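Before relying on records like the one below, remember that each one covers exactly one chain. Contacts with other chains, cofactors or solvent are not represented anywhere in the record.
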Amino acid sequence: MIDEIAEYDTKLAQPKIQAHANSSRDMQEKGLLVYFKMDEGTGSELSNSGSALLDGFGATVGTEWTTFAPNQSTTPHEFSPATRQVTLNPSVTSVDQVDFTDRSTVAVSGFVRYKNTDCFAQGVEILVNDKPFSPAVFTDTTGKFTIDFEPGKPYAKLTPKYKNHDFSPATVVVSNIIAPVAGIVFNDLTTRKISGRVAGGLCKKAIIKDLGTLQATVCKVEVRTTSGCFVETKTIDNVEGNYVMDNLPPEDLIVRVIEHSEKEIKDAFQVQGGTQVDMREKKDTVVHFTYFAPPEVFFENGQRRPNGNG
């Protein structure tokens, strides 16, 4: 009996594994690459709720569903009216038309994430049958959306929409909505690119040398989102100091030099800090990092002068 299949990008500690066994798993958990929820109780099609962008859908073969699950949950119903008072006496021995109307709705929920990241997209509208729902449904700050349908709705096609972004899958069809549906995932395929150069002085003198030898300079550039949901590091592999980082999520990003073999240069870049760039609208941008050596004062022919840079 399989309830779920999960794959992470790192080893998990024993308390974390035990927590997963004792309670429902958070499908937005950081580091969750692949997650197949196996307790929907219907159909054979499976989709990945993790951060890895997989090709198409999976499917179960020769399986049967069971109502047994370790973490059972119930959905309370709302009725109108909440209560009815009925008075019976010797003259009124029966009362008919004591009716109640089930006002409950069935929640269909999911989220929109940027492909191959743990970052989630805010403000994406979810269309229902190619039209805005009433009221309109948008993803919140955590990338989650929830749509409340009337019980028994036979068909609903969900489509994410945000400017000119592309999504995978482009649509998801939910049929025979009689129980809550969770874990629908749309991947925002939009990416950004940042390039630049790490060099010294106004003349862009190389500060990376001896590549391919044991004395090679190690210089690393880091890009991270302001929320910390995405971090990528690039080791520069050319003496000119050029770097290119693509497949970045369209978010607020911080770019900085985090490593250089020469302590003075590394310390200088640490003092400079990082550069924040808003990539939500920009497609590509350039961020350069320049090291300026501290001026040296010395005597030459009896004259005292500073040492220039570059």
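The chain has a mean pLDDT of 86.
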